[in-house]
Specification:
alpha+beta; 17 helices
Length: 486
C-alpha cells in the first residue's frame, strides 16, 4: 500500500535487480533503504529483521520497476560481496539415453503433426515426456550448478533438425527457469513445478506452426518469406487450440514467444500486436458462427482481452524472454542447410551482441549468468582482459555507449569489474530487424582517467551489450586493443 510520503523525482535512481545485492539483503536480513515508484511514493520501507515475505514483495516490485534515493547509493553498493570458485569441475546432468529417446519420440510427433491436428493424446504424451525430463533433472544433487550437456548429446542423436531444436530448446528453457527460480528462492515447490512444466510445454509447442509452412532453406529470405515466418507464433497458437489439455497460459506464451520486450517502442518484437489482435478477432468471429466451438472461442477471446487491456505479469514477461533466448541458442547451435552448427560459447557471444533491441539486462542474465557456463562445458564467454561495450541510459533517456576492459569476473559473467577506455557510437540498421551492425571507430573519445567501476555493485541501468571479440569483429578488436595499450 502506498504511503503519503512523496519525494522529488530528481532525487531518485532506478533500482536494477541483481541477485548478488538481493542475496546480500537476505544474508543481513534487512531491506536497507526505502524503495519508491516512479512518482516518488514509497512502495516498501527499509526494515530490519526482514523475512521471506518481505523479500518476495521486494522482488515483485523490483521486476515491475522501482527506485531509490540517490543518497542511498553507497548503502546499496555495500551489499553483494560474495563470489564463487568458477574453476570447479561439475557433473553432467542430462542423461544421454533418455534425451535421445525423447528426441526420437519428438521426431515421430512432428511427422504426425504434418498430417493431423494436435490431439488430446498428443498433449498428454508431451506433458508426460517433459515431466519425466524435469523430474530426472531436479533429482540430480548438482542440478543447480552441473553441466546441461544437451548440445553434446544432440550431436549424436541422429534426429531431424526440427526434433533437435525442439529438444534442445525445451531442455535449455527448463534449465533457465529452474535455476532462475532457485536463485529467487520461491518457497512454493508445487507451484514451481507447475510453472516449469507450463514453460516446457510452451517451449515444445511454440514452433509447431512450421509443420504447416512451406519455406525455402535459404539464409537470404525474401520479404515475403520473412513475413510468413513472422506469422508462425499465430499458427502455432491456432494449432494448439485443438487440444483442450493445453492451458490458456501456455497458449499465451506460444502466441507471444517472439515478444520478449513489452510495448510497441523500438524493439524486435513480432508479430505486431495489432496484427495479432486483428487476426484473432477475425478467427473468433468465424468460429462464433460454428457449433461446438465455444471452448476455442473463449480461449481466443481471453487472448484478445489480454492484448486490448495490455495485461501481462512478471512471470509471463520472464517466461517469454526465456522461450525466445532458448530458441535462439537452440537454432545457433544446430546445423542448418546454409551453415555449420556454432559452438555454444560462440552462440552465446552472438546472442549477447545482438541483444540491445531484443532483450533486457535481466533477460540476458537469465541465459549467460544462470546457465551460460553450464551450456559451454565451463567455458566463460566474458573473462579478464576481454573488451566489452556497455550501454546506460541517463535521466533524459539518452543512451551512452562505453568501451571497457574487463579487469576481473567474480560471481557473474555479465557483472564484472570494468575499466572504462572511452565512448563510442553504434552503427544501427534495420533489415528484417533492428541491429547494431558495427561501431564507428572514427567516433571514439578516449577516457584518459581509465576509471574502474564494478557492475556487481552497480544498481543503475549500465549493462554489457557487446563483446568485442577478435574473431567476430577483428577491425574493432584491433582498434580497441591499440587504444588501451597506448
Amino acid at each position: 500500500m502506498l504511503t503519503s510520503k512523496i519525494v522529488s523525482k530528481d532525487r531518485l535512481m532506478k533500482f536494477e535487480f541483481t541477485q548478488e545485492i538481493i542475496d546480500g539483503f537476505r544474508k543481513a536480513a534487512v531491506i536497507p533503504v526505502d524503495f519508491y515508484n516512479k512518482e516518488g511514493q514509497v512502495l516498501i520501507h527499509k526494515q530490519d529483521n526482514a523475512n521471506s515475505d518481505d523479500f518476495g514483495r521486494l522482488l515483485k516490485f523490483a521486476f515491475q520497476g522501482i527506485f531509490f534515493l540517490k543518497d542511498d547509493l553507497k548503502r546499496l553498493m555495500s551489499f553483494g560481496e560474495e563470489s564463487v570458485d568458477k574453476t570447479q569441475i561439475r557433473s553432467k546432468l542430462i542423461d544421454q539415453q533418455k534425451t535421445i529417446a525423447f528426441a526420437k519420440r519428438t521426431n515421430a510427433l512432428i511427422d504426425d503433426l504434418r498430417k493431423s491436428s494436435l490431439s488430446s493424446n498428443h498433449a498428454v504424451f508431451i506433458h508426460n515426456s517433459i515431466n519425466e525430463l524435469l523430474t530426472d533433472f531436479i533429482k540430480n544433487p548438482e542440478y543447480e550448478t552441473g553441466i546441461i550437456n544437451v548440445v553434446e548429446i544432440m550431436g549424436k542423436a541422429g534426429v531431424s533438425l526440427e526434433s533437435e531444436m525442439m529438444t534442445k530448446r525445451t531442455i535449455v528453457a527448463m534449465g533457465m527457469k529452474v535455476r532462475n527460480r532457485k536463485v529467487i528462492q520461491n518457497a512454493d515447490q508445487n507451484q514451481d513445478k507447475k510453472d516449469h512444466l507450463n514453460l516446457m510445454m510452451a517451449s515444445y509447442l511454440l514452433d509447431i506452426g512450421y509443420t504447416r509452412m512451406n519455406l525455402k532453406e535459404n539464409p537470404k529470405l525474401s520479404a515475403e518469406d520473412y513475413a510468413t515466418i513472422q506469422q508462425h507464433p499465430i499458427i502455432s497458437y491456432l494449432m494448439s487450440l485443438t487440444a483442450p489439455e493445453v492451458s490458456t497460459y501456455v497458449r499465451t506464451m506460444i502466441l507471444n514467444h517472439h515478444r520478449p520486450y513489452r510495448g510497441i517502442g523500438v524493439n524486435n518484437n513480432y508479430p505486431d500486436q495489432r496484427v495479432i489482435f486483428n487476426r484473432l478477432m477475425a478467427i473468433r468471429d468465424k468460429y462464433s458462427k460454428e457449433t461446438n466451438k465455444e471452448r476455442i472461442v473463449t480461449d481466443i477471446q481471453n487472448q484478445i482481452g489480454l492484448i486490448a487491456n495490455d495485461v501481462t505479469s512478471t512471470n509471463m514477461e520472464e517466461d517469454v524472454a526465456i522461450l525466445s533466448l532458448a530458441s535462439e541458442f537452440s537454432s545457433l547451435t544446430s546445423e542448418q542447410s546454409w551453415r555449420q552448427a556454432l559452438a555454444p560459447e560462440k552462440a552465446l557471444k552472438l546472442i549477447l551482441n545482438e541483444s540491445f533491441f531484443s532483450y533486457s539486462n535481466r533477460n540476458i542474465r537469465h541465459l549467460i549468468d544462470y546457465v551460460g557456463s553450464s551450456l559451454t562445458n565451463n567455458i566463460s564467454i566474458i573473462n579478464a582482459n576481454d573488451f566489452v561495450i556497455t550501454a546506460s541510459m541517463d535521466s533524459e533517456r539518452s543512451v551512452h555507449f562505453d568501451i571497457c576492459k574487463v579487469v576481473s569476473v567474480a560471481r557473474y559473467q555479465t557483472r564484472p569489474l570494468l575499466q572504462r577506455i572511452g565512448t563510442i557510437k553504434p552503427i544501427i540498421k534495420k533489415d528484417n530487424k533492428y541491429k547494431i551492425v558495427d561501431f564507428d571507430r572514427t567516433q571514439i573519445k578516449v577516457d584518459r582517467r581509465k576509471a574502474n567501476f564494478d557492475l556487481e555493485k552497480t544498481v543503475d541501468s549500465t549493462r554489457i551489450i557487446y563483446l568485442v571479440d577478435k574473431e567476430i569483429n577483428p577491425p574493432l578488436y584491433d582498434c580497441v586493443y591499440k587504444l588501451q595499450a597506448s
